[in-house]
């Protein structure tokens, strides 16, 4: 979590509400935003990230030196769309885009 991320997560409802009220089609990096009314998110899959953390922890506990472990880059991402917010913003999300989403919130 980045230093400022906690601030934004704790105020996610406020940010999503204001973006919709002022007609701003905002895209977020965390799925928590479309879950509370944000338009959409595209970011790393939290479950996959925590899985990688577990693998690293296991290696360290088995004696590997942290400095010797490779730096991993996220390879699994998730795309979430909130259709109710899209309608409120007057945006029609094509079916082809909805099919690409990992989750579509009605």
Keywords:
15% strand; alpha/beta; elongated; four-stranded mixed β-sheet; 4 strands; 106 residues
Task: Summarize the structure in words.
The chain has 106 residues and is α/β, with parallel strands linked by helices. The chain is built from six helices and four strands; from the N terminus they run ααβαβαβααβ. It has a four-stranded mixed β-sheet with strand order 1-2-3-4. The longest helix is centred in the middle third of the chain and has 16 residues, at 46-61. It starts with a helix and ends with a strand.
- What is the element string, with H for helices and E for strands? HHEHEHEHHE
Termini gap: 28 Å
Query: Care to count the β-strands?
Result: 4
Q: What's the number of helices? A: 6
Percent of residues in beta strands? Answer: 15-25%
Instruction: Quote the average pLDDT.
Output: 92
Largest sheet: 4 strands, mixed
> In terms of per-residue confidence, which ranges show pLDDT below 50 for 5 or more consecutive residues?
none
Described by the principal axes of the CA atoms, the overall outline is elongated
The computed structural class is alpha/beta
Helix content percent band? 40-55%
What is the radius of gyration? 17 Å
Biggest sheet, strands in spatial order?
1-2-3-4
């Amino acid at each position: 979590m980045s230093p400022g991320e906690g601030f934004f997560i704790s105020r996610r409802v406020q940010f999503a509400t204001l973006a919709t009220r002022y007609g701003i089609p905002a895209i977020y990096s965390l799925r928590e935003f479309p879950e509370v009314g944000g338009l959409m998110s595209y970011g790393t899959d939290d479950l996959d990230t925590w899985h990688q953390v577990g693998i690293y922890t296991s290696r360290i506990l088995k004696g590997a030196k942290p400095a010797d472990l490779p730096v991993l880059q996220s390879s699994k991402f998730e795309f979430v769309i909130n259709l109710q917010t899209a309608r409120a913003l007057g945006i029609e999300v094509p079916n082809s885009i909805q099919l690409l989403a990992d989750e579509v919130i009605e």
